[in-house]
Description:
The protein is of the alpha/beta class and 178 residues long. It contains eight helices and seven strands. Helix 2 (33-46) runs parallel beside helix 8.
Amino acid sequence: EEGGEEERKERGGKDRREGQRRVILALDEVSDPMNLGAILRSAHFLGAGGVMLSEKNCAPLSAIVSKASAGAMEVMDIVKCRNLPQELQAAKQAGWEVWGADAGKHAVPVSSPSILPIPDRLVLVLGSEGSGMRKLVSRECDKHVMIPAGREARKARLVDSLNVSVSAGILLSHLLLH
C-alpha cells in the first residue's frame, strides 16, 4: 500500500481504517471548472475520501480544473456518475448516510447540535452554482444542512448564499475536523 502507516498517521493523525469519519463529496451539475477545481483542492486538503461527479452538466476534468485544484485532481479518487440519484441510493444501501447542502427552510445549520452525531460514513451532496441540487437528487438525502448567514447578511438580504466551492470548504471543515 502506497504511503504506509507512518504517512497516514502524519496526514490525519489516525488510520482511517480504525473508524475515523469518512466523507465523500457528491457534486450535482457543478459546471464551472474553477469552482470544481477549488472544491477538489479543499476536499483534498480537509481529508475527504473522494468525489462523485454527475456526468450530466458537470465541468469536465481538464487542465483548468487541475490548475485550480493545485494538483488535487491528480491524487483524489474521482468517480463520474451517469445516474447520481441511483449512486446515492446504492451508497445508502451500503450503509452510508447522504446529506445535502441546501439553503432551504427545512435545512439544519451545520453548526447545530441537532446534526450530532455526525455519521462515520457520509456522502455530502452539493448542487450547481445557480439552482442547487436537482429535486431527484435532493430526495435521496437523509438530511439537509446549511451554512447560516451572519447577522449583517441576514439584515441586508443582499447575498442569500455562498459560492459552491466556499460552501464545500466550510461544510467539509465542520464535518471532518469538528
